[in-house]
Amino acid sequence: MEIYCIQMGSVIEFSYCMSLNDGLPCRNIVGCWQDRFDINRLLRSRFTEEEIIKVFGGLPKNKLERILECLNKLKAS
Asked: How many angstroms separate the Cα of 25 from the Cα of each of 37, 41, 75, 76?
């Protein structure tokens, strides 16, 4: 399955949405996919409550925070 991602600015596969965040789903996954199937049920079946809270709890990172996080990961590798 594919969908246009506003964040990426291109068409992406569902598998990318499910593993975008260090093996965890993108925090926007529910809004993007809820019209196509029961995404909430799928997330509850694949991830622990702690993982779901990690993804959807708290405030979303702004663009600068995401860029800095990506740069730090590149430095570490």
From this structure: 16, 14, 23, 22
